[in-house]
UniProtKB/TrEMBL annotation:
Enzyme Commission number(s) from the entry: 5.4.99.5
InterPro entries per UniProt: Chorismate_II_sf (IPR036263), CM_dom_sf (IPR036979), CM_II_prokaryot (IPR002701)
Transmembrane annotation, as ranges: none
Name this protein carries in UniProt: chorismate mutase
Native species: Bradyrhizobium canariense
Domain Chorismate mutase residues, every copy: 5-96
One Pfam family, short name: CM_2
């Protein structure tokens, strides 16, 4: 006589399993907090400014995408990890996020809250330059500014030694319908060992800027340009990948008829990491 198949677990049993998992996750978060507390004591993080670690965070978010599976949406998983990372960073060395809302206040607020949660103070500014200036006067704050357009050349404030620099491009993981899809640069002061330099960002001042010169540069690098009528030119923010170089950019400018007045390294960030609609990673 064949045995009956085991009865499926009851709703009460399944809910008990969920409760046990929830308790385990909470205990792990508290354990993580204990380790952070020890980290503060060992590294004395509070004495060196921002605890933001863009290289480590970019790597963590890529690993998260690579291992994720199941019915839980990637948006939810990413947002949970972003809150965990940002909150523990804040615990190590408190900081505020200064956001430029001149282009889109709702989109910038969504980006700040998605990537840094609600524990980190949020300060709105009506220009990118004001947000960057606030960070320059702070000990370890961070600014969020548009990575694709600007009304003012705010990056000129980053040229001097000791000034804050571009340290990340958010979101770390790009995909269609991302809940915080606005491309933004994060500007702050961090230790050199914490930086990721896959893409270098340069401030380039040129004379003779026009549409033809812009078309010549477009295949070589991502560029944000603010025209400068006083010099018949423009202030450029140029993102240079490993396949190019600032020397190639300068050569292309000269060949197209422009004159390069100055160049300065103003930061770096990880390469853009995208998840196509098919679900494959690149």
């Amino acid at each position: 006589m064949s045995q009956r198949p085991p009865a499926p677990p009851s709703l009460q049993e399944l809910r008990k399993e969920i409760d046990a998992i929830d308790e385990g996750m909470h205990r792990l978060l508290m354990q993580r907090g204990d380790i952070i507390d020890r980290l503060i004591q060992v590294k004395q993080t509070q004495e060196v400014g921002s605890a933001f670690r863009p290289a480590r965070e970019a790597s963590m978010m890529r690993d998260l995408v690579q291992r994720h599976r199941g019915i839980l949406p990637l948006d939810t998983v990413e947002s949970i990890w972003r809150v965990i990372i940002a909150t523990f960073t804040y615990v190590q060395a408190p900081f505020s996020v200064h956001a430029d809302i001149s282009a889109s206040e709702p989109a910038m607020r969504d980006s700040a809250r998605f990537h840094f949660g609600f524990t980190v103070p949020y300060v709105a500014h009506f220009s990118a330059q004001a947000a960057v200036e606030a960070v320059a006067k702070s000990k370890g704050d961070l600014a969020l500014v548009s990575a694709t357009s600007s009304r003012t050349p705010w990056w000129l404030e980053l040229e001097e030694a000791g000034a804050p620099k571009i340290i990340a491009r958010l979101p770390f993981v790009e995909r269609a319908d991302h809940p915080a899809a606005l491309p933004v640069f994060a500007v702050s002061r961090v230790a050199d060992s914490a930086l990721v330099t896959e893409v270098e960002t340069f401030s380039v001042r040129v004379s003779g800027w026009n549409a033809e010169v812009a078309r010549a540069l477009s295949p070589l690098a991502e560029i944000v340009a603010v025209p400068d009528t006083a010099f018949d030119g423009a202030a450029l923010l140029v993102s240079v990948t490993a396949t190019s170089s600032i020397d190639k950019i300068k050569a292309a400018l000269i060949e197209a008829g422009a004159s390069v007045r100055s160049t300065a390294l103003v930061g770096s960030h990880a390469t853009r990491y995208t998840v196509p609609p098919t679900g494959s990673k690149s």
